[in-house]
Write the structure tokens for this entry.
Amino acid sequence: MRSAGLLILFDVMHQADTGGAFPPVGQVELSVAAIARHYDVSRSHVLSVLRDIEAAGWIEKGPRDGVWILLPALQADIRIFYGITYLGLIRATEMAFERLEAKKAG
């Protein structure tokens, strides 16, 4: 995705969050203008990012303008993303401790 694309994706998920399972699935009303102002990008750029997210199969246009539907594929893929990210952090921490222990022993 282009500049701010990942941030826009996370913003969409945050706006759809109702306190249940995360990331949420279901409808969310988005203000393209507000998102554009927040990330200092054009409205056309935000719409382009939303189309990219739609092409990935994560969202689809809702029943009226400004409404998008977050799909189960987004929930599944984001959970995998976070899982891999946290596993990487855990492994990096393990490696750091191994190096510290080696320094103490050596």
In short: The longest helix spans residues 72-105. Strands lie at 26-29, 59-61, 67-70.
